[in-house]
Amino acid sequence: MLTNVLPVERGSHREARPRSSLLALVLVVGLILVGAEAWAWQTTLSGTGSGAFYAAAVDSAGNVIAAGATSGYFTVVKLDGATGTELWRQTIKGASSGSNFAQAVAVDEAGNVVAAGSLTVLAVGETRIHAWTVIKFDGASGTELWRETTDTSDRTPVARAVAIDGAGNVLAAGLRAGGFQIFMVRKYDGASGALVWEGQVSGGTNPVGQGKAVAVDGAGNVVAAGVANTGGNFVVATLDGSSGGELWVHSIPCCGIANACCGVANALAIDGANVVAAGRATNKPQTNNFAVVKLDGASGAELWRQAISLNASAPEAANAVAVDEDGGVVAAGVTGAPGPGTNFTVVKFNGADGAELWRLTVNGTASNSLDQALAVAVDRRGDVAAAGTTQNTSGSITSSDFTVVKVDGESGEELWRQVIGSAPGTNGGALAVRVDAACSVIVAGTVSNLATVVKLEEAPPRHASKGDGSEHDRSCAGRKSPK
Fold first, then answer.
1. What would the mean pLDDT of 211-233 be, rounded to a whole number?
2. Which of 44, 93, 159, 348 has minimal CB crowding within 10 Å?
3. SS3 of 21, please?
4. What is d(CA 182, CA 199) in angstroms, rounded to the nearest whole number?
C-alpha cells in the first residue's frame, strides 16, 4: 500500500490558516511516519473495491468497531484495539449491491454491536427498493443476532443514528421515505429486535424531514436531532423513553427563502440534565451559520445559542459536538474563508453561558482549499480530537485527504496533525473519530477510496506548562471516561 503523509509541526497557531506550516509531501511504503504522536496501526480493507467507514465505536476492551460500505455492501468490522488485526467482518449485499450501507454503530454493555443504515431488499430490472435497517451482531463472533428492515421504498429510507439505553434497548433515528421524507425515531427490544414504539418529530406544521442524531438522557428519555418541516428547521426533540410520546420540541425556523438558508441539527450531546445540539441555523435571510445551541433538558427552553458566520456565501455548519467533563462544549465543522475556500474549524464554548473560549482553523495546501471537520471527540484529560478533510496539492495533483488534528482542550493550541494523502485520481476523508481510555485516537474513513481505520497513540509529558509558570496534569490516569 502506498501512503502519502503530510506531517505538521507541533503547535500551529489558533485562528490562523497555517498553509505554510505543512511540510513537504513524503512518500512512504507500508508504514506511516511518526510525528508528535505514535502510529499504532492502520487497517485498510483492500480487495473490497471502493468503500468508506462512516462510523466507529470502541468497546470496553478497547477493540474498535467500524461501520460503512464496501463495494456497495453494508459493512461492519471489528478490529483488535492493540494491533488492528481483523477479528470479524460482516458484509451484507442485500438484494443488490450498490445501495447498501451502515451509517451508524454502537456497542452495548455486553460488547454486542448494533449497526444502522439502509439495505436493498428488492431489485427488479432498474428498480431498487430499499429499507431502513438496524442489525445486531454478537460482539465476540460477529454472528447476526437479529435484523429489522422496514419502510421499504425506492427513495432510500435510512436509519442514520443509533444509541443504546441502560436496559440494552436500541434507539434509531433517521428518515422514512414514502410520498415524502419523515423524521422517524424507533425503539427496539435489545434482546429480540422487536419494535417497542415509533415516533415522528415534526418541529413545524408537518413531519417532513429526517433524524440525524439520537441519544438517551439520564432519565432514560430519547433525544433526537435533525431537520423537520417543509423548508427545513433545525430541530431537537425529547421523546418519552417508555412510550415514544413527544415531551418537547425545540425548532429554529428556516429563514423562508427556498434553498437559501435552511437549517439542520447535525449532532447532539447530553450535558448532565441539558442537551447541546450543533448544525446549521439562520439568523437572517441567505446566511448559513455554524450554530451551537444549549437547551434545558426538562423543557427544551433555549439556554444559549452561538452562531458563527465568516462568509455569507459559504456552506457554514457545525457537523459534530462533544462535551468535556467540566461541561465545556466543543463543536467541529466548516466556516467560510475570505476567498472561495472553507476552513476545517474547531471551536470551544463555555458550557454555562456559551462564550467562545477558543477557535482553531486548519487548511490544506491547495489554493482556496475546501476543508471541513466532520467529527470530534474529547479524551479523558480534556484534549480534543477532530477529524475531517483538507485539500492538498502535490505537484499538479490536488486531492481531498484524510485529516486528523489533536488540540489542547484548555488553550486551543494545535498539538499535532496528520494528513494521509490518497493515490492520484482518488480522494480520502476522516469521517468518524473516537478516543479510548488511554487517550489514543481512533479515526475511521476512507483513503484512496478504500475503507480505512487508523489508531494513534500518544506519549505526552505527564505535566505541561500553563504559561504562567505553573503546571497541569497531562496524563490520562485517574480521569473520567472519554466522550
1. 91
2. 93
3. helix
4. 10
